[in-house]
Amino acid sequence: MIVFIRTGKMATGNDESGFRARDTPHGFVKRAILRQYLTGYFSRHVANFINHGPRSGADNWSICYIDAFSWRGEYENFDGDFPDDPNENVKKGSPLLALSEGLKVLNNQWKKIDDENLPYFNSKFNVLHYIFNDINEDNIKNIKRLAKIECQNFGLPVKENDNFLLYELQESKMWYFKVSFVVGAFEDLPVPTDADNMFSMIDPCGIKQIPLSTVEKFIGKNKEAFINLMVMTVNRVGNNPRAESCIRKVFGNSTEKTVISTAQDKEIDLKEKFEIIVREYEKKLKNICEEHGTKAIHFLFAKGKRKENNADMFYMVFVNYEAPRSGYKSLHQMKYAMQRFAKSEDHENRFTDLITVLTA
Fold this sequence. Notes:
eleven-stranded mixed sheet; alpha/beta; single chain
């Protein structure tokens, strides 16, 4: 499944990772969509774990959530409420929101377990593993501080290491929950091999930070990814005659010439340029998914703009393996998450023209 969401301009940064502490309306919407989707994602996989037990044995993690560009984990000076939970802290960045949603789901599902009917829960099982990565060490230190507070708010015991926090949901039952902290570039982030299901948030501050060769490692069977493709930046960089290597890095060897020629063509309308750029990226992702054995490819487009007369600024791309027999639950959940933020009177958080294309 590949989902494209068009939304507002990406904030530029103040530190080496590109993080800016001042929040924006479109940044808020991006996190709200992620949070809405993860509620269903965690609920579905944790419920499946409870009903059927671990798929690959005790050593594998049932769910792995990766935030490839975690930044500091919190924002400033933005007032707003999540429509389904006004008590949730809107200043939380994507890592802390994902952490909070996972803890809520685990806490609710744990209450449903019957010891007599589910004896395997008396053994050690790895349920949920978070990996928070950022190139800036100070950002990671701050996220670790916030993550520790978040988990302690849920009353979870903490086993702390320099590189991770480890929690046991109950001492007698050894249901493990882990948060790992990594300092480094996205290109150097190792892909976990011990996860039954994996979701990756790939939200950089520049296009050269997400080479296609690295993105490819995070998509495929039982993997989902939410990727920020900054089409406005791609178009600007493509206008630079010396930028061919950067475009090739993001789009691959067979596509960069189309992207560059499109960006440099003064006869093409800006919105049309963005459409062409996105279609080229779509082709690349589709080919990768098919190489990984994807049985159904889905494209979902939600046109959006920051102001009524503005061109689109960037796309959020959702990539997912989902066989038809699943009933396309992930597709429906992502569409619902997008539609929760379909319109606003001031056009700040505008999403329109939702189109779905299914390709077997």
